[in-house]
Amino acid sequence: MISLSIAFAVLVAGYLIYSRVTQKVFDIDDRKTPAIEKNDGVDCVPMKTWKAFLVQLLNIAGTGPIFGALMGAVFGPVVFLWIVLGSVLGGAVHDYMSGMISERHGGASVAELSGEYLGKAAKWVMRIFSVVLLVLCGTVFVTSPAGLLANLTPDWMNGTFWAIIILAYYLLATLLPIDKLIGKLYPVFGVLLIVMACAVLGGILFSGGKFTIPELSLKNLHPEGTPVWPYMFITVACGAISGFHATQSPMIAKCITSEKAGRQVFYGAMISEAVIALVWAAAGVAFYGTTELLNAALSGGASNVVYEISTGVLGTFGGILAIAGVVVCPITSGDTAFRGARLILAETFHLEQKKIKNRLVITIPLLVVGGLLTWFAIANDKGFGIIWRYFSWSNQTLAMISLWVATAYLIKKGKYRFGSFITAIPAAFMSAVSMTYILTASEGFRLSTAIAYPIGGVFAGALFVVYIVFYALYSKKKGRRESESTIKKEGETQ
In 3-state terms, what secondary structure has residue 289? Predict the structure, then answer.
């Protein structure tokens, strides 16, 4: 319990201190935001800061901080360390920069920003990569809540039934103006999500000694011997750092009414998600007692584990309430996943989105693909696991690219270019994670760690060297321009 308390304290300190450092590096000002300047009544709509925060939290807090945290807990309490440090130094910085850079570019997507700062080739890669990730993400966020709801309803209301209902809701949420459905429902769901997480934690803490939260240990306790590096860093995903968030932050970047709100909305929402992840990681290791039992339970599906923990800790009624909160979590990320995909494709094909016809042209094919993938996940016993693994890797790879985009932005546009280190360091770290994982994973190249680890390290090191060289060259170039400008002004004065 001491380790968990310290973990929560570090998250709070991270928000109070490191978020201000991040904001200082970005150098906010009082310019008009897209919500004020454009206000198209569909995607660019002004929102109060508290509402924007809750909408952002629901956008990013899918099954990742719950399912990912539970699967990460199989490695043992070491997962606490990654959730805390990953979110404060990586995930929250990633989300803040993704949202604020987008805001500076009229709410542009991460794909467009990649083209702006990494080149045209990167833009097309990111367009494809982002849409694929978002469709996979939407599928994950259909399948998991459908499974949870099926546990609470009669047999005829099975996973397929609930998947159809959820997809129908996604159609409305993707098409309607952001303030009509999402803006009205999400604040309520956000409060529910926070209350339910607190209820589960309270049930664990006040169980009369029935459940014990273990203290932090760096020892790998995975019963199958799966190495912590890089698997835990991929598995936890949204609870620490997530590229999916880079596709969601631009949506709320279109809605904030001041750059000052960015720290609360983007950095704050990620820290809140990390708190949720900590709760579920702690609940997983405490409820089952050993990582062996937790791993065995997860083999029956993460949805069943959530059901068992919720009902086991809070009883039948409390369990149903807790699951209601957990169901809301993925659904309210799935709808914005498809909405994000719509916006990226609209940018790509220059389709103005004020007309509902243009929104339908993009939305219907996206949901058809999502529906087919959902059917595969439900019909195949291992379907969800396969989609989740590909989603997790692509998710962290997108985070890596987004952090490099932010780094390039800070070098080119930032007032404090040396501040680019706060994005370059986590970018290099995630580069090593993503490369090592795809080289060793069963869905990747299946290379031995003796080969994959050095390659991953060299890959990350090479990118960091490119960053250092780019930083030095751009600083020298900018210094020369400033010197020439000074000389010119002095000449004019004379």
Answer: coil
